[in-house]
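User: Batch of two.

Assistant: Item 1 of 2:
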Amino acid sequence: MPSEAIFDGFRCEICEQFHAGQYLSFASDCPGPYAALSNDDKKASAQFGSDQCVIDDNQYYIRGLIELPIIGLDEVFLWGAWARIWQKDYEELSLCWDTPGREKRIGPFKARLANNVLGYSPDTLNLKCTVHIQAVDVRPHFVMDEPDHPLAIDQRRGISLLHVRRIASLVRHKSQ
């Protein structure tokens, strides 16, 4: 079966219905600490953009990707997430944000995930990771540094298509 057909949809483990559409990537819209702020606090103490966020001038976040190979397929599952990095690293990245070849000049940076990735226990919030800078217009890649955490294991070994579908079910029903 061509890989495109595999990803036309999935039977949901939660509602048992077929959900059409692509499900190879999901993303957290913002860092967890930003989401926890009230609307007034967001306006007063945070700067939020599509790929960078600063809270209280002392918490620095960047958006990136966690890549999980799918076992038996030439595809990867992508989880868009945010990571908290040190101020000096944030400033260095900001200075090179639009600089061609930045991936060869800066990083990698130590960080901690700023989101819980659905489908993983224990939680992934504050999980140690390394940020690998990519070319301009490509989000950084996050590599998990805690080798015994299930997310780190999946990143090294890959995940089954069944696991991808479980994650899709969780994401689809998260707010219901």
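Item 2 of 2:
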Amino acid sequence: MSDRLHEWHGKRVLEIATEGSRLEGERDALDLIGAAYGHHPDWIALPVARCSDAFFALRTRVLGDVVQKLVNYGLHVAIVGDVSAWVAASDALRDFVREANRGGQVWFVADLGELAQRLAPRA
């Protein structure tokens, strides 16, 4: 599968393909931004499968560096998939995920359906 562009509730969401290199650091975030730029997305849906184990170990700073780079370029990011194993192993990551999901720039969602739901206007 290649990257696919969706539009949900007026937001352009670039779904990153599951296949491909894993995000290991800031350089990979720049590559991701470059690949996404031509699509003009509001959100990037990044599958968990594309994230290295180091991505979820907060002490490595990979997650923070990648998210910061994406946000600096005006992109929102949704990490899509099951992160429960990493969350169970790290109180700090559990807290990060909870706080991120309260905000509007970085979300952790189970699947694309949940992302589409969260993008819906609130009544």
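The helical segments are 26-37, 53-56, 62-72, 84-89, 91-102, 112-119.
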